[in-house]
User: Fold this.
Amino acid sequence: MKDDILLQINNISVVYSDVIQVLKGVSLAVSEGRIVSLLGSNGAGKTTTLKAISGLLKTENGQVTDGSIEFGGRSIHNLSTEMITRMGIIQVLEGRQPFKYLTIEENLRVGTATRWGKPYKRDMEMIYEYFPVLASRKKSLAGYCSGGELQMLVMGRALMAHPRLLLLDEPSLGLAPLVVREIFQIIRRINLEQHTTIVLVEQNANMALQIAHYGYVMENGKIVMEGKSEDLKENPDIKEFYLGLAASGDQKSFKNVKSYKRRKRWL
Amino acid sequence: MEFFLQLLINGISLGFLYGLAAMGFVMIFKASRVLNFAHGEILALGAYIFLTLVTWAQLPILVAFILSLMGSFILGFVIERLFLRPLIGEPLIYVIMLTVGLAAMFKGIMLLIWGGNLYVYPDFLPAWLALDLGPLTVQPVYVASIIIGLIFLSIFGLFFKFSSQGIYMRSVADNQPAAMSLGVHVRRVFALSWAIAALVAGMRGIVLGIISGINVHDLSAIGLKVFPVVILGGLDSIGGAIIAALIIGLLETFTGGYISPSLRDVVPYACLIFILLVKPYGLFGLVEIERV
Assistant:
């Protein structure tokens, strides 16, 4: 990765309520125009990492106690969410958080908050082009839309802000496999066509590694492995623990009596 | 029949006044879940600012009206900035208790400056505003209050439906973390909702002052009338608050007229209890959208 580094996290620690340490020295780098995926099991600290970047940590009584976060060369870990979003970092929260009582169109308009007063009609057209489903439901309340539609809605809403860096937190959560595939294709298109840098947090390691250029694996608040997606896909540990394949690459079979559980090498 | 029509019109204009006051109240509740107990005092303060500008500073009515609305708007901003912002992130009950304290403070300040006497505005509403409906005439004040009510309700309706700032305000009320993640300036939204609420309250104070004179205790007690209105309408529905306000306004004038003036203040509350038994969220309260 010899491109320009857009986001650089240096050895950050995050503590909630002054006592609960969630991140213990996380460092990662995201190059401009790339998709970087962040993998790991539940409670590994993936979401906390995203919130540390977007500044949303402060509203949850969390704090970056150590280390630094730099975006485009500027240190941002002490800035407020309003400032950070206006620099072009937009986080799409986990679990689809639509504005239930606003229509689809109004939901998209909230995405213009960082550039209030500027025209937004053309962006709206662009969003409808990426997500045709939304166009057909413009006037209906978001609360009545399906999970797949909502995921597209919250991603479209974030795109309305013209983000330089888009933080996606588990876009595949609770969606049908076909919808997941569609959403990942759109993520790839956004990255290619809008040159938006994307950090993708996922449980679905298989899908994430297919579209990401680079990946990090987190466990217990630390980064335990990193590498190009192709390399990670071939790594025996990743195969066993995240892709559900046997180390040899075949589907794991229980016919073999001796299929004992591998130990994670990094623990 | 004449009597009936007279009561009907009085009830409707009273309803519009309640509706305006309730609107400011609902706005603060929607954006920040705070029940503002100082509403009546902010309303009275608006009436006093207008009184001072008209009688002491001798400004033309229209100028005084606009200035006192601006004054109320700024007052709302200042309240939010000085008293409420430090409490962001604290439990809601602290904030609500703070508004109770604000109510006492404002009342004290008003008593200190203007005393407890009853003042009246000079008569300035033109006579042509009076509506001549054959056997009965509607007083200019009532016509003016209906007109002002309609104008402001439609302005705010359009503001919340179509303007970007209005949509941001609704998004904060709907899902605050999501609004923050998109860069909506949540503190600015709170400040704006207080400012707009104070403006609406101040305007209502002025109109009430025209109808029944200006006295600290009376005006701030009327401020409490918003509670039956907003609870009946459902705490977070502006449209519901207006319809509920009309219902309560009509109930009050009709009981006052047909049954007994001393029951005026009781019957609305009795009805409120009955309606809440049937519809616990109020007539138009937000029913949680659930996808099945």
Q: What stands out?
A: Residues 2-227 of chain B form one domain.
